[in-house]
Amino acid sequence: MAEDSGALPLKENFSEWYNEILWRAEIMDVRYPVKGLYVWYPHGFSLRRSTYNILRELLDRDHEETLFPLLIPENEFMKEAEHIKGFEEEVYWVTHGGTTKLDIKLALRPTSETAIYPMYALWLRSHADLPIKLYQIVNTFRYETKHTRPLIRLREITSFKEAHTVHATWDDAKNQVEDAIALYREFYDRICVPIIFSKRPEWDKFPGADYTMAADAIMPDGKTLQVGTVHHLGDNFSKTFDLKYEDEKGEQKLAFQTCYGISERCIAALLSVHGDDKGLVLPPEIAPLQIIIVPIIMKKNAEEILNAAKLLETEIKSAGMRVKTDSRDLRPGAKYYHWEMRGVPLRIEIGPRDIQNGVIMAVNRFGQKTSIKREEAISGIKEQLESFKKDMKFKASSKAKEQIRIVDSLKGAKEAAETGVAVLQWCGSKKCADEIEQKLDVSVLGSEIRSEYIEEKEDTCIICGKPSKPALVARSY
Ligand code: P5A
Ligand code: ZN
């Protein structure tokens, strides 16, 4: 599919690098003839599957998976006023069945609140039914008018994981928001992507929510990418959809709700945070291929070496790891290049001398070489993968730390926002946020920051001098 020709642009030219890596590493094909819609290559899809398997594993602890229809009738969709205002410009409508005009237009879900909650209203009877915690992984459609980008801003989001929960009280829903934040943290930790949670300003919250907590990742060019959100919906939707339950005393009570979502942006962040000038760098847990064996074949003992490689492959496979032998008739260098581009965490080289010495040579994706005794191959390889994951995490979190700067002036903030995120004191007002945004050409992402690197301390607003708290400010995707 992708040709191994020409050089990958350097990662410092991030935007070019990003566009090229997608096809060279066979993640997405962007040639589909509809704007904002892209095609997963099998290699990309395999990465999607292993990544979403982690998400499923975490959710399945105390959620249940479900599947709702793609189409939402106009009358349900139009019920919640704030929600409609937020989405009306982004909805695709189905108006006809063949040549017959539909009595009621059908929306392609941009998200599924208005598909799910009328059904929740039928299902919910008593306090004993609570909490309800369901999720689905589906495609959703949003007619985005900002610049579309593969995995980042799509018109068909192909991998929208949305969870929708129902609770007896506002506080129960608040606790669920905290649980969801912890769950997303754990997910991003597993895929080695550092994130920062903060509370979005009032004017930036999800349409219909009481408040929104958002996770941002910092991309190599210093711009942030919102890679997940958790919304406290209060009783806004339950009023609209008549979502009530009978409490212990036999009284009818309105329920409280949350919802939270992650899209394939998690994969965009993963590729971007870890990739380098040679291509992808993937955490072993989700790499479609964890180990590539490259036999170093000389003419005279080709068969012996190939057999040794095959035997090792079988052993590694039965130990439960994803491995392949590259026995193509190519120079070793060309094979290294090919697998480095695709982010394979570990390469094993076997040559005549290694066989003689009873060893194999392991080279991780950072280029570090380790000689492993042949009889200890399996435990040695497992150790290598484990320490590689640690190195990936360390690299990514050091980089993130570097990209976050606490500043006390607009000038300092401007500088910090060139390479990452500025943390500055902000009073919470729209007026001061507008001034910061206009002067620095940035977005005020939010306050109540959840990060081990940022201390929550009271001070005075950088603009108006009133009491303030730290806020995240950055250029964002
Ligand atoms: C939460 C799940 C919702 O839609 N309803 C159900 C809530 N929230 S959200 O913030 O609007 O979207 C959740 C996350 O999806 C990602 N996202 C996108 N990814 C790619 N292309 C898009 N056009 C797009 N729009 C939203 C963001 O990561 C967002 O946080
Ligand atoms: Zn202020």
CATH evolutionary superfamily of the largest domain: Bira Bifunctional Protein, Domain 2
Structure annotation, total helices: 14
Q: How far apart are the termini?
A: 29 Å
Remind me, CATH topology of the largest domain? BirA Bifunctional Protein, domain 2
Ligand names: '5'-O-(N-(L-prolyl)-sulfamoyl)adenosine, zinc ion
Count of β-strands:
24
Q: What percent strand? A: 25-35%
Percentage of residues assigned to helices: 25-40%
CATH domain class of the largest domain: Alpha Beta
What characteristics describe this protein?
Rossmann fold; twelve-stranded mixed β-sheet; binds zinc ion; 3 domains; alpha+beta; 477 residues; binds '5'-O-(N-(L-prolyl)-sulfamoyl)adenosine; Translation Initiation Factor IF3
Write up this protein.
The structure is a single chain. By secondary structure, this protein is α+β, with helices and mostly antiparallel strands. It folds into 3 domains: 14-274, BirA Bifunctional Protein, domain 2; 291-387, 3-Layer(aba) Sandwich (Rossmann fold); 404-474, C-terminal domain of ProRS (Translation Initiation Factor IF3), CATH 3.30.110.30. The protein contains 14 helices and 24 strands. It has helices spanning 14-24, 42-59, 74-77, 81-87, 113-123, 170-190, 236-241, 265-274, 302-318, 332-341, 352-357, 377-403, 410-419, 430-440, and strands spanning 28-29, 39-40, 64-65, 71-73, 93-97, 100-108, 132-141, 156-167, 196-199, 211-218, 224-234, 244-246, 252-254, 256-262, 291-295, 323-325, 346-350, 359-364, 369-373, 404-406, 421-426, 443-450, 459-460, 467-474. The strands form 5 sheets. Strands 3, 7, 8, 9, 10, 11, 14, 20, 21, 22, 23 and 24 form a 12-stranded mixed sheet that branches. Helix 2 (42-59) crosses helix 6. The two termini are 29 Å apart. The mean pLDDT is 96. Bound molecules: '5'-O-(N-(L-prolyl)-sulfamoyl)adenosine (P5A) and zinc ion.
